[in-house]
Amino acid sequence: MTHETEMPKPAGKAGWFGRLLGRGEDADRTLAATPIPPEQPPELPQVPPELPPEPVNDRPIPAPGPDIIPPPGSPGPEMPPSILPGPEIPAPPEPQPESPGMPAPDVIPPPGSPGPEMPGPVEPYPEMPRPTGPDVFPPPPGPEVPPAPEMPAMLTTTPGGLAPPGVPAATRSAAEQEWIERRAREVREQMAPAAEPAGWLGRLRRGLGRSSSKLTGGIGDLFVKRRLDDEALQDLEELLITADLGVETAARLTRALSDARFGQEVGADEVRATLAEEVAKLLAPVAQTIAINDAYRPHVILVCGVNGSGKTTTIAKLAHMFRRVGFEVVLAAGDTFRAAAIEQLEIWGKRTGCEVIAAAPGSDAASLAFEAYEQARHRRAHVLLIDTAGRLQNKTHLMGELQKICRVLKKLDPRAPHDCLLVLDAGVGQNAHNQVQVFREMVDVTGLAVTKLDGSARGGVVVALAERFRLPVYAVGVGEGMDDMRAFDARAYARGLLGLEG
Question: SS3 for 173-227, per residue?
Fold first, then answer.
């Protein structure tokens, strides 16, 4: 590269200084002839730049002033002397010499060391002689202690009563003799066991105790050597109605008593005996037992009733009665609406030795009855007792479930169920009439079983039911025991209801 016009070199500026200020010809030619390389990005330094050193504070540390905390170990400023003199501290007391054998005060001796010597016992004062003489009053006399009473001799039984040994009863007064005999009689009555009538009749009489006490008490108040007139008959009829015998039954009984003894003086016992005979005549046609037909195999008995009437317990008692005469019995837990009923029937089945057919709670009761009938027929059982759910007589859909069970059983045997037993609680009184009426319209009720006669004073409702519906009364229950349900006996029931023996 050549320049057309050459610039003159200034004088005195050649060499290093010239190159420094304006770059000489050689530098310019060199730069012009040197090709310019392409631009490249600058390379990053591999080593980080060194940090500048921290400045050093060379200023001297000032001397400690009044508000500056001196360094540890340096002597603090001299404190001015106190203006007020402080209280003098007393010198500790000099130790006193210890007495021999005595520990220092407030010092606990070590264990095992002998304690201080205790002073000896104080001698009592000499007893002063009691003064005597004419001017001295004698001491007051003490209370007299009565001698201990002698224990009475053991009483022994004599023909004349209780008397001490060797003392005849005739030597005592009449009042003493009467008192001893009365006390002996009270002791014997308290210690003797209560006389319990034996057998079923005794339990029936005890069960009807509440009902009979109501009748016998009322009759005893009405007839105390009283002439049997129209007024007396009217009072008696009201009493029988209040005893749940019903209006028709009460009118019939008073009419029979009037025909026999009208216009005569009668007592309470005579009235009760006459009424018991009339009640027995009313109950005789309905006092029947369940006739188990061996040709059916099994004889199906469908048990129904309202809630709480005692159906499950009645089934267990009937099973016990049948097992006792040699029948093989199968139980069906058809009350699938109540889980406790299934468990209760299973427990009764173990006690009576009967097989129980059950299903899960909430299952179809008609299907269970179908299965129970098939198994009982396969086992050649004599009796099949089917439990059902408690249902009110005014619930139409529940009564429809009961009719469904009967329809399913008739598919297996057109005659089944062979008996439909309605269980009644004696405590419901006149409401039992409504129950019998509705259940007879829904299913073919063939007989009744009356329970809980021992807990109610309305035992007369059985007589009213017999008078109105003429349905057989198969069994009555007077307790919770296995043997507290028996076949219905008209005469025993009538005499128990009127409080008569036998």
Answer: CHHHHHHHHHHHHHHHHHHCCCCCCCHHHHHHHHHCHHHHHHHHHHHHHHCCCEE
